[in-house]
Amino acid sequence: MKNIIIEGKHITDIETFYKEINRVFMQNEDWDISQSLDAFNDLLYGGFGEIKGNEPLQLIWKNFEENKKQLGFNATKTFYEGKLQAPETYNIDFVREKIKELESGKGRTYFEIILEIISDHSNINLTAL
To answer: What residue ranges of the chain have pLDDT lower than 70?
Structure first.
C-alpha cells in the first residue's frame, strides 16, 4: 500500500490546503489542480498525479486537529462570502443558503467536505495525526 503524507503544518487556509495537495500529489506533473473541491475529488480517483487508478492508499494527515480549525467555520464562511462577490459566476441564492446553514450549525465546513470527499474513495484509508 502506498503512503502519502499531508504535512498539515503547511496548511493555514484553503489556498494553502491546495498548495499542499499539489505539492504532495502533483509533484511529478507539470500542472496543478485548481482550488476546487471537484478537482480534489477528481485527483483522488487517480489516473494522474501520485494515485494510479484505484490503488490502495494510506493517506496520513499530520496536524489534523489544527487544520480542522483552520478550514472550519471562519474559512468556510469567508469562502462562501467570496463567491457573493461574483454573482455572474455563482448561484448567489445557493451560496446564501450555504452561509445560512453554516451559521445555524447545520452546514458543513470546508474541512468536513474534504473529509466526506476522502471517505467516498474506498481505496483510501485516512490516518489523522
So the answer is: none
Q: How far apart are CA 40 and CA 85, in angstroms?
A: 23
**One-letter-per-residue 3-state SS of the chain:** CEEEEEEHHHCCCHHHHHHHHHHHHCCCCCCCCCCCHHHHHHHHHCCECCECCCCCEEEEEECHHHHHHHCCHHHHHHHHHHHHCCCCCCCHHHHHHHHHHHHCCCCCCHHHHHHHHHHCCCCEEEEEC
CA pseudo-torsion sign 42, 22, 34, 101:
positive
Residues paired with residue 4 on neighbouring β-strands, in sequence order: 59
Q: 32, 2, 30, 28: which is closest to 20 by C-alpha? A: 32
Q: What's the rounded Cα separation, in Å, for the pair 85 and 32?
A: 25
Would you say the pTM of this structure is higher than 0.85? yes
What value, to the nearest 5°, has the Cα angle with vertex 108 and ends 107 and 112? 170
C-alpha cell at 56: 490502495
On whether the CB atoms of residues 102 and 76 are closer than 8 A, the answer is yes
* pLDDT value, residue 94: 97
Contact 7, 62 (CB under 8 A): yes
